[in-house]
Every structure is written in C-alpha cells, then in structure tokens.
## 1
Amino acid sequence: MTLFSIPEAALDSQATATHPKTNVWVSANAGSGKTHVLSERVIRLLLNGTPPARILCLTYTNAASAVMQSRIFRTLSSWNELDDEQLQKTLSQLENEPINAQKLTYARQLFARALETPGGLKIQTIHAFCESLLHYFMLEANIAGHFELLDDINRKKLLQESRRQLLEHKDAQSSLKHLLKVVSERSFNQLLYEATEKQHKLSDFLSSLLSENEEEKLRALFNLAPDETNQQLLEKIQQIAHLPLYALTHCQTYGNQNLKDMIAKFSQLAEASCETTIINIISDIYFTTAGEPRSFSRLSCKKADEIWPFIQQMIEDKQSKLSVLLEKYQCLKSVTLNRAAFQICAIYLKIYTNLKKTNGFLDFDDLIERTLHLLQRKGASQWVHYKLDSGLDHILLDEAQDTNPEQWQIIQLLAQEFFTGHSQRDNVRTLFAVGDEKQSIYSFQGAAPENFAANGRMIQKKAQQAKQKFEKIQLNYSFRSTADVLKSVDLVFETPENYKGLSAENTKTVHEAIRVHSPGDVILWDALSKEKNEFPDDWHVTVDHLDTPAIHLAEKIAETIAGWLHKGEMLPAKGRLMRASDIMILVRKRDEFVSALSRALKQRNVPVAGADRLQLTNHISVRDLMALARFVLQPQDDLSLACVLKSPLFALTEEELFQLAANRTGSLWQSLCMHASTHLSFKDTFESLSKYRNLVDKMPVFEFYSHILNNDKGRQKILARLGSEANDVLDAFMDYTLTIQKTGLPGLQAFLETLSTSEPEIKREFDQNHEEVRIMTIHAAKGLEAAVVFLVDPGSAIWHPQHAPHLLKISLNNKHLNDEQGFIWCPNAEFNTKPSEKALSHLKERAEEEYKRLLYVGMTRAEDRLFICGYNGEKISSDTWLQLVKKALKPHAVPIKGPAEDIAAWRFHITPSSSTPINQEASYIECPTFPPLPDFFSHKLPEEPALPRPLKPSVASLSIEADNELFSHSKQFSISPVLGEINTNRAFSIEYGNIVHRLLQYLPNCDPEKHRDYARHYLNTKASHWDESQREKALHHVWQILDHSYLKPLFSDNSRAEVSLMGIVKIRGKEQAISGQIDRLYITKNSIIFADFKTGTPPANETAIASRYLLQMALYRKILQVIHPNKDVQALLVYTKEAKIFELSPEKLDALLDEIAT
C-alpha cells in the first residue's frame, strides 16, 4: 500500500471549514472529503456546547445521512476508549488549541448526550425534515395530522382515478373534444403525466392565467395582438401567396420542369377550400419541409433572364411576408390548443389534489410546497419561526448543488433569524453549505449549478450585513483518486468547449492529488461498431442470437474482469489482490448492455450485484411466480405450466418437459397427471402443483406466495440458480403483494392484473462490503467510489427532440401574468412556434452542459484505474464521452494491446509504476492475533430433539397405538370419531355432527322462547339440501338434550361451550402435550362437570363404549384436574340419539391413564 501525507494547505482549509462560529460556503472537488468535513463540523459544534437537538444537517439521500451519522457516533464513542493523554491529543488536533480537564470530561459525555437526545441527531434529507415539520405544525399547515407519504402504488391508483374523473367531468368535455381531434391519445397521456410532474408550478401559472382574460393572456405568450383572428390571417396569407397572372404565365413558359410543377400547385390552391389544405399548399410552394425559404434562383431558363429577376424578387418578398404571417397563424393555432390543454390540466390537477387530500396523502413535491407555504404564511409563520428559533442554532447542507430553488427558499427562511441580530439567544448561529457545481446532475428535479453560487453570494451578503464571520473555501485536494485519474480529468476539461456549463463561472477544472505516488491508469478502448454482415441469414446461428456492439462490449468487459479475479490481478496502490467489490461499471442508461453484462459476468462465475434499478415484472424470478399464478388460476394454460416446470421451483430438464409435452392428447396438466402415476420423478411436482391449486382458494396472495417461497423453500431454489440479486427482487415482490393485499382488490387474479399493468420498479441499494461487481447509472453512483471503474459510453446522441418534454417552460415578460416563468404546450412538430423552438433550444443547451457534468462525475468515481469504452449504434454521434476523452488524452497516451484484436486501446498515466516488488499475501491492514478457538468449534453440535406437536384427545388412541416416534415428528392425524361409525355416507355424517354441535353451542345463549325459530332458520340456511325428515330428526335430537333435566347445569348461564384445553400428560414414559376442545363445561365452587357430545349410534352400556372415546374423556379429565387440583371432575359422554348419557367412572378413567403412562 502506498502511503501519503496530507498537505498543510488541505488541513488548514478543513480546519476553517469546520470552525463552529463561522458561516462557511465550501466548493469541493470530487473526492476532497466533503463527508469528512461535514461530520467533523458537527462534532466540533457538539464539542463547543451546542445541544444535539439544535443542529440540523440536511443530506441529499438517506444513505448519505446514515453514513454521516455512523461516522459521528463512531468518533464520539471512540473518545470513551482513549485515556486522558490520548484524548487530549486528539481534541487538541481537532480544535487547534489546548484542552482542559473540564472539556475532556464533557467530550466523554457527548456520545451519551447524542444518543439520549429525543429524536436523535437531526441528520436527514430535506424531505424527511419537511415531513417532521408538517407533522409538528399540522394545524398551521392546514393538513391532516395523520397524513402519509404517497408511494408509487397508491400514486398510480390516484392518477388512474383522476384520469377517469377528468374524462367524465362536465366542464372538461368541450376542451377534451377539441384536444382529441388534433392530438393522439399518447400525447394526451403525456400532457397529464407532465402536468402531474410539474403540478405546483403549473397550478400557480394556471391560477394566474385562467382567472380572467385567458385568451388575451395566452395571445401574449405567443406575442399575438388581441384583435388578430384566424380568418383575418388566413385571408392575408392567401392574398400574399397568389402570384399575378403574368408571373404565372412567364414561369409556365420559361421555367424548367421543377418550376412548372411548383406553378401547378397554384391551381390546387385556387381550388382548395379546407383551411389546413390551403396552409399546407402555401407552405409547400414557398418553404422547404424544414421551414426554410425555398430557393427559386435556378428554376428558370436563360431566355427568361430579363424578366425573371423581377419575378424572383417578388417571390422572395412574398416569402418574407409569409414567414411572419405563417408563424402568427401557427401561434394562433397553438393558442386554441393551449387554451384547451390548460383548462384540462387545471381540472385534472384539482381532481388529483382533492383525491390526495381525501385519502390523507402528500407526495414529495407536496412536502416542499406545504413547508414553504407554512414558513411564508402570514400569521402562522411567526409562530413557526418562534418555535424553530428556540430549536435551531446551526444548519448544515450537503450536496448543495443539487438543491432546487424551492428547497433553497426553505433553507433561507429557516436561517433568516440567524442574520437579524435579534434572536432569542445571544450565541453565534451559523449556516454551512458544501457542494460542487461540477456534480450538478439532477436538472430533472429542478437543480441548476448557478443556484449554488447565487445562494452563496446571498448568504455572504446577509452575514456581512449582520457583521458575522463568513468564509468561502475551495477544496481542491482529492483523497480518492490517483494523480493519473485526476490529471486525465483536468486534460479533458481544459478546453473552453468542454468546460462550458461545468460551473457557473465556466472555468477549467483544477485538481490536486494527495495520493501523488500511488500508481494508477486511465485506459481507453476504441468504440465498437456494428459489423456489416454479407451473409445476414446464417442458418448456423441460433434463433435468439443477438449480434450487437453493446453485447460484444459486455462480453469483452466480462472476460477482462473474470481474468483479473480468477488469475489474481494486483492493485499496487493498495498492496493486495483485486476483489469483485473493487469494480464498478457505470452506464448512462439502462439498456440491453446492462443485462448482457450481468449475464456475461454470471456465466464466468463472477459475483455481480445486478442492476441498481429494475422493473419488477422484468426479472425472471417474478415472471416464474406470475406464471405459477396463471397456471393455478387456469390449469389449461400450457405455456404458463411449461414456464413453471422449467423454473427453479421444479427445475425439469428439457428432456423431461419434452416427455410430458410431446405426443400428448390433452393439456400439459393432464399429461403431468398421467405421468405422475407411473413416473416417480413427476409425482412430487404433480403433488406440489395440486396443493398450490387448493391453497389459492384458501389463502390471501401474500400468504400463498409466502408458503411457496418459505415453507416449500422456493426462495432457496431461486437463489441457487439466479444468485443473490434475486433476493432483493423477491423481497420487493413480497412487499408488493402485501401492499396490494391491503389496498387493492382481493384474490390472486386481481393481484396478477394489477402487477401486470402497474409494472412496479425497485431501486436497489448496494452494499460496498459485499464482494460483488456493481453495475449502475452515473446518477445512482453519485457519492460512491471504486478502485476500478469502467465508464461505458452508449454512443447515443446527447439530445433528441422526441425525449424533450411537451410542456415547456418559458420566461415571462408579461404584465398580465404575475409569475416569472410560464408554460406552453407543444405536443408535436405540427405546433412548433418561435417560443417553443426557443424553449427547446434552451433545453438542448442545458442537456449538453449536464452531459459533460455526468462525464465528470463518472470519471471521478475511480480511485486507481479508469477504463473508458463504448459502442456505437446505427448512427455514430460526435462529442460523446469517449470522443471527448479520446481527443484530450490520446496525444498523451501510448498504444497498448486491446481486449480484442479489432479493438484499439491506449494507456494514459503520469505516475511511474512501482519498482518495489509487492508481496501478494501482504495486506495494508495489520491482522491482530487471537487465542485458539475452543474445542466445541471443531465438533458438530448434537441435534436437539424436535418439539412434539400437541396430541388431540380425539385421536389419542390411534396415535398411542402407532410408533412412539410419531410424538416427535410433524405427522398429524385428523380422524373424526364420527367416521368410526358404520355409515354409508361419511360426508353427511360429518356435516350432521357439525350442525348438531353448532346448535348445542349457540342455542343456550338465545332467548328460550325463540329457540325453535332460530334452530329452524339455521337448518334451512345451512342444511337446505337435506330432506325435511332429516332436519326434523336433527331438531328432535337437539330438543332431547336441551330439555333433559340432568343436563340443565351444562346449559345454564354459568356454563361455557367449546372450551379449549391444553396440558402435559405422561404417555409411555414421555411427557406429551395434549390439546383439545370440550363441548360443554360447568364449574362450581367444589366440582366440575364436562360433557362431550357424540352424534353416532349409542352403545348398549358403558362397557361397550369405544376405547378411543374413553381415552379422550380420560385425557380431558386429567388436564382439568391439573388446572383445578382441588375440585372433583365429573365426565359425561352424551349421545344425541336417544339422549343417552353415560357418567363415566373416575376409577375407570384413571386406570386407563395409568395403563398408557408406562
């Protein structure tokens, strides 16, 4: 491992940034220790007496919050392990001043203080902070106190319901009718989607636009005069477009064929009556398809030279005038379209907002908007600030470059009391922000790099006005990357065209390496392009073979990584062998390359974490579970059954599936049924599938899949084939089943339909400690690092109009509208106008700038080695990542052998390779020695005996007569005594017994005068399929029992029905758990009477009673004696037929128990 020293300048900058009494604005390069500085500043604030509850640290992600909190607690806890001398040295270095004994004692207490603070240290995302604030001030914010965050599943449901209500809304019908005449359903859906994404800004704009004079305001957006009408414009356009007769005659006589064809269109124009046709013909005559003026200079012959110049000049004048008029016509058409679109958006957003309010939901945008409104609200804001002023002393902001304008407003409002000089307390209150404009890559969330610098200047001005200390610090030293990687970054962003938009000042990057002597590499691989195949229909190639540059590159990267890990590649800078967790592959988008690379790595036995984000229904494990659901719902679905049989759940081979499928006469399920009786290999599969078909009608969706994955070890089987990546997918799938089970329609069919249509996406958080290669987008890799990074360029265009939003932001200089920003809707090229083209041009420029910032973030993730490679599509784009890096580094790099003969490669490095041989067994961490392990570590622990299942008294005799091992195994008998009777219809006997028992259970609790009415109603409902004689017979038996004088106590108010019992009884020398249910129980002060009802044929006398019944009653009596040791227990066996009652002898029952005890 290469050691390095930290320059004094870097230490001084960190000390200034962490000073607890200074407002600080830090601009930090990638890898310069932002998290370390933030954590250290919090520690210094605590050390200087700030209560933990008065510090608010806002991070960008929950992961960053957890990392920072872990670092702080680890540091504070370590102080308790140091002696006084060591702690004094540590604190002196931190504070840069001597430390007294009192402060030493205080420092040792900080860990406990931080832990015991109610709510803990407030290190959280801004959304989490806003959520807690709204819960605290729910009345002031005018929201429901029980509100919940809107998750993706419920959001989709609300949006679907909002769309349905919109289409039925009476006020939206005219706008819908106009809109759907001119745009597709896809454009309409895109409008609703974008309206939801921009809901708050759009709502503010719409409330101003549609309040009054909306037509005039819309015209102003497109720079149209209020009095211009569509008909007037059309007449002007037609008037100007027509050529004089002499000009037409001259062109027809002397023009070439192209001009004659053009002149012929004037005849079409004269006959046209449709407005759209007229505009299209005029545009086709005077302008190209791209909208440029058509050239007429070479359309006439030489004989017409004298007159043609005058005609040509006339045509060009008409082109100039028509260009203006056609633009106005286009704008007027867009005004009508936008008016309808905005009316629809207003209704739609109102519906969506009301649905959220009704269901108690707030989304992430609502958290910010409601908090901002709370802090600005007149009257309430003073109270909120008063409460906050007593609770916040210091605000720290991480990743400040990704904070959007609304979030900046919240932070400024929270901190405004810091700079007034009139707060409740006299102590210094500070604001700290750290960020890097070069890493601002979340423009789709409203972040802009210029906001960071602008807010820094604003805070600096406020601090200076309040005469407080303010420091602006630049952290250029990088602790992460080697000098080779950092130099490559500086070379790429050295030229103005590359660093434009990288920061607000538009300056080139400057990085200082701390790891100056650590060896590193930057490797360039030339882009792979698709080869032209002279024989595209090669029948030797498999049907599902894919031959694309993306897949070829994935194979080459996988081969390279597999070679490193299997052969033992060294990381000289770290002094050890490379591990899978040292490698990170970064992509711009999740396309076929990601899945191809993951597959290629798995094929080479390289552990891979899979994609950082994936659609749940796209994963093969979920598809298998969905196929299983389709099969159990429709057993004739052969395709789904085949998928299930091939899945890891059953893992049939191709040959076995062919054996089932080929030459079958019925369905695949019928074939499996037949083969299961003759082939042992299919028997278990058939039994499992049959069981699932039965379970699906008895279990909710979550329990159904839980049984498959857990009870039947389905998860274990899936992980064995698909790897650990499937674990996160299965967890997400089970979470989804539980969510749908709680909020959606019941049943597997409804769940399957919801899952198929919603296609939920899961985001996976990677653990850097897992030994797996990570594949992720650059956005997801923000804040992460790896020793070896592959940056993959997809070769696609930076900007494409079809990916642009349709709802475009425009700047407003409009006296009619209060907002600084407005919106126009441009669903397709047919409605392009100058304002929309200007907005699209601005978006394109910002996209190109962010594209370069993405490149910066991707390159700076690398610690030691950076590989930059890529592939091209059908069209090769210029200025892609690979092209930019290649242009900057190739002059300074040397050619090397590429991953394949047809792939050129170059190596850039400035640090000389280490000349000192490195011991491959050496580790940069000194391993401590441990005492030898105890003996029991090397011996297998004896298996503990399985816990016995409780024995049911009703089947006790059968179990006791069986093998003794039954008591410790999971086999469970469930034979009813009714079946022991001679009966031709067992099902009826069971049903009859159950109904009689229910009547004897519930009738004693009813009004005696209505006993017979209730009983008849119950029988007519539950036994309507019985004969009348059977129902009357059942009633007769029940009345015999209820009216029996001897049994009156058992049906009194103090009696109980269906009493569950459990206890321990010694059987054959072993203690056995017994559980059962007594039909009726009556307890007095000194005695207990219990009865068990039998609906079978009664015996002639007590000696003829079946032994199993006697044992059942003996066990019940024994358990009751254990529970009530001082009471006499009387057992009654009652036969409902003939109302025959047997009072069982206690001596006989005790003797029976003694017999089975040994």
## 2
Amino acid sequence: MAEDGPQIVVCEGGAGLGKSAVVTDVLVRLAEQGWPTAAVRMDGADASVQTAKDLGTRMTLPDSPAVLLAGVADEAPALLVIDQLDAVSTYNGRMSDAYEAVEDVLAQLVIAPNVKVLLVARTVDIDNDRRLSRLVADPARAVRFPLSVLDLEQVRAVLSANGTDPDSLGLVTLELLRTPLHLSIFSRLSLSARAASYRTLQELYARYTDERREEIERQATALDWRGITGTLCASMSERETLQAPMALLDGFARQHIKVLESHGVLVRDGEQIGFFHDTYFDFLFARSFISAGEDIHDFLANSGQYLFRRAQTRQILEHLAGTDPERFRATVARLLGSDRIRLHLHDVIITVLGQLDAALPDWKAVEPVAWGQAPVAGKVRGLLALPQWFDAADHDQRWERWLSTPQRADAAFPELLAVARHRPERVAELVRPYVGTTPQWGQRLLRLIEWALTPGLIDLAVDLIESGHADEARGPIAVNSDFWSLLYGLAETAPAPAARLVGAYLRRHLARALADGSGDPFESGHLSTHSQVADTVLSRIAEAEPEAYVSQVLPFVIDVATAGSTGRTDAYAPSGRWAHRLVGGHGVDAAMLTALDTALRSLAANSPAAAAGALQQLTPSPVQELRFLTCRVYAVMNQADEAIAWLLSDERNLRLGWLSSARWASRELIEATTPHCSDETLERLTAKLLDFYPAWEHRRQKGQRSAWGWSQYELLSAICPSRRSAAGRRRLDEWERKFPGQIPSPPTPIQTGFVGSPISDHAARHMTNEQWHRALNKYAQPQPERPWPPQGGAHELAQTLSSRAQQEPERFTNFAFTLGPDAPAAYLCAIVEAVTPHLDADRWEQLALHTHRTLGPAAAPTICRALQSAPQNFTAASLPALDSYTTDPHPEQDIRDADAEGTRTDLLTAGMNATRGQAALTVAALLFHGSEHLHALTPLVTRLANDPVLAVRVCAAQAALALMHHDPQIALDTTEQLLNHQDTNVYNATTTQRLLINTLVREPSRFAAHLARALQGPGDTADLTGQSWAVATIQGCLTPDLPNSTHELNALARRGAAAVFANNIDHYPHLVPLFNDNDTDVRKNASQGMRQAFDLLSAQADELVSAFLDSDAFPDHLEHLAFALYDHTGPLPAVAIDACERIVQHAGKDLGDLRTHRAADGHYLVSAVLRLYRQSPRSQRIRCLDIIDRLSQAGAYGLNAALENER
C-alpha cells in the first residue's frame, strides 16, 4: 500500500490462497503504524445497500465510510478494506446491484487520495464482471495484487523454518503444500506428523483431524466431536449451505463449541457458524457418509443434484478411491451408467477418475460405459487420452481390436491422437498397419502427425511423407500454417529428428517435380518459397544439428542447383535457383541455402571429417552455386594450401560471393588462408592475382569512372599484410591512389526503414534562424541519393520544423514572416498548423494573411484546417481569403470511377480533400462557433450549397446545418437548393442525411419529398436514407405520404433502418418485424439490438427476447443475445432462462468447438446460466441444471473451470 502508488489495490485469487489472511495482516500492520482503518464485508449487503451512506449504515456508521475515514485521517494515510467484493459481482449473481454502493465510495474518495482502498475478490469475478474489469484496467487508479500458489522454494523455506526437512517429504507432498491453505494445515501438525508424506488433501485432513480431535478431547473430555461435526455436516448438506444457525448446536455444551472455535475448527459469524474452510466440511461429510455405509447413487438421485453436491461427490469418491478401490470402481461404474445422475456430476466423476494412477481393473470397471450409448460415453473414452489410462487399457489386444473396427476406430482415434505425445512409439506401432489402406485412415494418419508430432513418431512421419501419404501436411492451427509450421517447436526441442523430416519432405517434392518434368520443385510449384517460419525452423536445425542438416539438405540443393544449370553453355552463369544471393534474402529457398552455409561452416570447425565428406560432394560440380558453398567451407577448413589450390583451379572461382559483393566469398578464403599457406602456394596466388583483370573491366561505361583494377584490388588486398610481396604492395599502392576512399566492403542485407528528416531533432533544437534558412533552402532542391539510411527532403524537414514551432511558437511565428513564395509551401504551412493553438486572434490573422498572400491557393487547406480547430481566430480581415477559397477551381468535377487500385472515394472524403469542400467545412465550424460573422458567411453557404460538384455540396450540408442555429428560414431555403440536384447521390453522405433529418423535424411537409426520393436512391444512398427514415420515425416527423412502416421500404433502406433501431432499443417494436425480414443483412443489422435487450424494463425485455427467439434471425445471430446475457449487470429477467435454453438447444456441440465462433457464445452462456442459478429459487434452478447438463454434453468452453468452486 505505497503512499505514492495507485489509490486502489485489488487483492485477488482463488479458493485456499489466503486472501483473508493477507488482508488481515495488512490491516493489522498499517493500524500499528498509525493509519486510521475501516473494513466491511460485502457478503452481508442486501438490496437496501445502494449508496455509500447505505454502506455506512450497514457498518453502523452515521455516514459514508469514505467521508468519515477521510475526515478522521485529515490528509494523513488511511485504509478502507472492502472484503468479499465477489458477493456483489454480476458473476456471483446474488446482489450485484449493491456494487453501486462500492462505486459511490470510490467516487467520493477521488478527492481524498490519501485514503487507500483494499478491495478483495476472486479472480473469476473480476474477469467476468465488466465493472470490476474496467476498474482494474486503469493502472493509474488501481493495481492488481494476485495471490497464487507458492513456488517450491517458498514452501521449502517455510518448512525449514518450522523444523521440517523438505527433502524428506517427496515432490508430491511439496506440490500439495504449494496451496497456502494446505501449508497452513500442515504447519499445525505435530513434529512427527510433519515428517510424513501426504499425497492428497484428504490424507492431510485425516491426520489433522486425528491430532486436533485428540488434543481437543484432552482439553474437554466430554466433548462430542462426532455429534457436533456430524450435526453441522448433516444440516449444511441438507440446506446446501456452508454455515448453520448457532441454534442448531443448542443441544451441545456451549463451552465445547467455544473450544472448537478456539482451536480454529469452527468459525462463528454472528449467529451463524461453520467450519474453517469449505473443503474441510467436504472432507468430514465424506468421511461420515462412507463410515455410515450410505449409498452415493441414491443420495444424489434423491437430493436434486444441485451444484452444491459436486464438491461432496468429489470428496466421497476420492475418499473411496484411497480406502476401498473395489467399492470405488463399483460406485463409479454405477454412477456413470445411471440415467438418474446428471451430466454435470458425471463431469466430477470423470475428473476424479482422471486423477487416478489407473490400472487394468479401473478400465474394466468403466469399459462397458465407454462403449455404451450413455451421454457420458465419450467422456469416459476421453480418459484414454491420459497416459495412465491408455496404459491401463492397453492389454489383451484392446487397442488393436478397437482400431480394426471402423466405428470404434472413429470413436477411439481422438484419444489416440491426444495420447500420442506421451506414448508415440506405441501409437506408431498401432497405426502403422493402416498406412495406405483407406482414405479415412489417410486422414487419421495425417491428423496424427499434424497434431501429435514428437521424436517418437518421426519414423512413421518420414514413411508417410516419402510414400506420398502426407503431401498436404501442415501446422494444424493457423489458417496460414504450412509444413514448416509443423516443425516449429520440434526444430528447437528435437532438431535431429526435425532434420529427417525436412529431408523426407524435400525428397518427396523433388520426386513430384521430376515426375512433372521439372528439376526445381520451387519453380514447378510443388514447394512454395513463401513461409512465415521456415527461416526460423531451418536456422534452428542447422545451428543445433549441422551434420544432420547437411546430410538431409545438401543432396537436395545439389540436385536442384545442377538441374538449374542444365542446358546452360556456361555452368557458372548466374541463372540458377541460388545464383543471385542476398544476405538475409527472403523465401524458403534462400533460407535453406543460408542455413546450409551455416551448417557446412560449423562442420568445418567442429567436425572436419563430416565437412570433408560434404566437400567430396561439392567440389566435382561446375555449378556456380555449389562452388560458392565449396569456397565458404574452404575458408574455415584450416587446409590453406588445399583451399588455395582449389581457388586457383578455375579463374571463375575468383568471383564467388553475393549480389551486393560479388567476390566477397573468394576474398574471405584468401584472407583466411594466406596467413597459413606455404610460401610456394602464396607465390602462385600472388602471381595469379597480379595478372587478374576480368574482361568486364575493359568495358568502360560512358560517364562513369573506369573500374579497371578494382577486382584485383579487392582480392589482392585480402592477402595477409605481413606476407605480401614487394610487387603486390606496389600494385596495391597504385589501386589505392586510383580508388581513394574506397575499400572492399562485405555484402549488405536487405534493409527497410523510414525516410527521416535530413536534420535530427537534437540538431534542430540548437539551430539559429540563419541556419534554418540555409537548411530550408538546401533541401528545397533535390538532393543526391545516399545509400543508407534514406534521407528525406522538404516534406520531412517540414515535420521537424513543425515540431520546433510547437515548442517555440512565438519565435517561429516571427520566422514564418521571413519565408517567401520561393520556399516550398510545406514549410510555411507546417508553422501555421503548429502555432495556431498558441496565438491570439490578432497575431493569427497577421500570420494567416501573410500565408495567403505568399502561397495563394496552396495555403487553403492549412488555413481552413487551422480555422476549423480554432474558429475564435477568424476575423473580418480573413474573409476575403476564405471567400476566394469558395471559388477555387479545385475540384472541377466529381470522381465517380475507381482509381488504379480499385478504390472508390466517397463524396464526403473527396470534398474534404478539395479546396471548396474544405472552405465549406470551415464556414460550418465558424457558424457552429457563433453568430458574430453570420452576415458575411451566409452568402458563402448559399454559394457552396449550389456548387455543381456533389463532393462540395455534401460538405456545404454541414454549413447549412450550422446556419440552421442562427437563421432557420434561410438555412431551410439553402437546404432545398442544396438537395435539388438531379443526382440522388447528393443524399449519399452523413452530412446531407443529418441536414435532411433536421429539416424534417422543422418542416416535414416541405422536405418529405426529399426523403422519399432519397429512399429510392442506389446502394449506400438508400442505406443511409433508411437510417434517416428511422430517426424521423423515432422523432415522430413522418408525413402521411411517406412510408410509415419498415415493410414499405426497399431492402437497402431497411438495412439502414434496422441499424438505427438496433442502437435505439427503447423503440424495439420497430425492430421486431425486422427479425423475420427476407433480407439477410436486414436481419443481421436488427439482431445487433439484442445486445441492449436487457437495458429495457423487464416486461419489455421479455417481449423483445421472446420475439427474437422465435424469429428467422435467431439461428444465425444468437451470439448477440448470448453476449447480452453475459454483459447485463443487474438481475437477469425471467425470459433469460428461456433464452439460455434456446441458445444451447440450437448451438449444441458447436458451443464446445473452438474451431467455431460459437465457442465464445458458450463462454457467455456459462456465465449467464450460473448467474441465473444463483439468483433463482430452487424450482427454477432445476431448469438451470438442465442447461448446465446440455452445456456439459456440448463440452462448452469454460464450464468445468466455472463450476470448479461452485456451491
């Protein structure tokens, strides 16, 4: 709670993580430091708590806790704790309206930043309540303090501090103790008990109970532990609550109750009492239930099977699994096979089974259910996806039999696919007999390597690829995935197996290309050069496993490069696949060669024998690309004489490199070998180079300097300086004089960057006016191109000038008056736009007039935009300039056709980019600002409203609308002139539609004909006018001769009307018929209104939702209703449960399919149904349970997590 930190801290976490303990500790510590503190729990709030003062009343305070605490603190630090905030969240669903009191408190404390607020809530409530989510989304106001399980080192430290050796407990126990509650229970055990290991919370609770009971009974010998705890458990179970009235224990000695409280077993809250944690209640209930010989099937079947029973069911089954495995197996088999047990409880059973270290008897117990017809059968089979269950069932040829039967193979293969990552070798063994059998098995095997590829499946995958059964293999998730995506993770975790797959893939597609008459699968299209991840995959493999990469890729590169040289008279000519090499070149083929180069050079340094083997494959080839690789390897091989001998074996080896440095590889070889070669070899090399003049250097281009000697200079200068001969040194001196300032340079990668200003911001801050003038004059002229980085000219310099003008407006305003017509307009315009917010009207007028006189029409966009942003600067002296802009020749006509890129510019955008259009918008801004210049501006409005170009007219519509505020009659007359254009596209702009709506409100009979005409317009015109018709309908200004219902409109107009009614949900009766419209887009637009359905009164919401549920729009657009159910912050109306039932009925299994958009609807529905469950009476909860079961059957996203701690 740092005094200088955010005012609000949100302590969050799940059950058992110690939120209450942390908050109590903070409260005590700050109180000890002298902070005034106050605390309130929101789980005690009721419907009467709506304001901060109501919350104070709840705390028995005379006023709001915020007001009182701020007053007591008197600007000193103070703390307000609001605990159990989840009790008033929308996700909890019980008392969400009471959150308004919390918001009121927080609003009051905005002016008292010294009062810190500590909010306490579950993470699930924060994530599912948009009010809480918005609160924590503002880092300046609130900070989240999440609690989570402890890390192992923290657990070890606590144990060691308490005298327990953590190494004696085992990893399973340490993992159990990472939950703070479990560690707390463990810490209360005796020293001998803390030396034992515990696999489960049940074991821990059992030891805790034995010790605590023994201790308590020593203190109170007559205490009836079984009676007290049994009475509480029975009552809580029957009432499905975690507390019981104190009166329930009146039959027991009150002193005994206090003893249990003092030992922390029971916790009292007013007149209610309960156990210290709900998991301990579940434990005691399960133990009592089993010891009494109760039947869990009958107990559940006869108890309503509400969500409260989930935790009890889990505890009973876990207890049975640990104490009586035979009874456990019989019990789960009966429960899973019973149609009297709800599906949400079946999910609990499956969860318990999934935690078992399963054996064959466990699988045998549930096998009949797995292959039966019960709804839970698929989930029971889903256990086979877990390694321990796969092993348990993998006896007596079960998997072999299942896969041999088509129906069972379909049912079992998803589990085989899931477990393949854990048991790849066994899975490969099971499926190998089906390679190449049927199309169905072909698809299954393809899915197997796409979803479950691990090193253990590599042999199978290689066989599938090479035999042509996996030509379409690709990463399974993203739509733009490819084969290389499949290897992305494998290349990092298992690069050698990944290299085998690369080799198989390349060989397969080379074979396909050859079959089609091509030696280059990239050229033939069998391999794509495009991939987002291939470069990463190939480089990872090459760097981690160079030998494997070379063995798999080098033969392919040799074959493709050789094929590319076939038919060429000169095998060295740069026309093959990799002839034009770039450093950092893009494409799969370029990445493949770069990675091969990396791998080969790595072998030369670390595995010379393997590198020598690669050279044996490369050196016989005359192909230029392969010679390049040879040169690169020799440069790092530490065989100087052999390398130079190869270099001198063919003069064309002296020109090996990259596109941007054609001899760099040759130069690198010389540089690397000449310090170590023999004198004789060096003499041969030097003699060769001194006589080396490529033929192209003889041909001098007109206007260019002679390049004679440059190639020799590049190579000769690579010889080790200390070993250069006298003749070599003399020749180098000659070339250095001929090529002054030029040195051989390595190849450069392809680069991208922004064209920046020629003057940096740092330099600009220190420039004088004279320096600015010189710079502006210099860059007003075209500058010679520079290689890198790119440098801009006048436009980019104007941006820097603008930045400085914003920082020093007075200086640069004065500077602007020194700029004349010879300077680019961008300079002066940049200053005007930058300084406008800082100038008064007189000064701005001077600057604007200077700009207008200096630049003429070119100043129009800048001056207009400046006036639009600061209309208060307009003066009568500026009127002539603005008047001239209204008669500017630009634009000459409307642009109706698409441009070269196929883009059509709408009228309003076209007007904004034209001088007269900008003038119209400026007049509008001035009239909206006030009436001071009304007389002078009115003629301009009239002129622009009658402009022949529609793009200008639609901008003038904004000016006419502004005029309506000052002189309605002239504005109406002007509007009629504006709209009286022969082209109905005049209505195709938001500005004209707003103007039309305004005139209809004022004189509906006069302008109704325009609305009727516009409704018959083409395309977007009708759509926009449909929106205006809907607004007129809402305003009540339709005339009898206009359509008075949506069915009288055409489809385009109905689309627009539907969009307006959807955003004005109070007028929902107009929306209802549109749900059944015969136009799909109309139904789509109308359905958007369902997102606000619950903003209506309850009866209205019922009517609207019921109509939607029975409409044609519902099946395709139910997601809007699902979102509304999720998003509503108050109690959900009665119709909400009908909506949930219909959504889950229609969407079905799609709610659990992450490949469809319905999975998000499932998330919304889960939240809504649980809220309904909590706010509903028991009779209504049955319907909620039915929906939850349907969601369970569909596998709805988020259901199991949401139900995890649900009571």
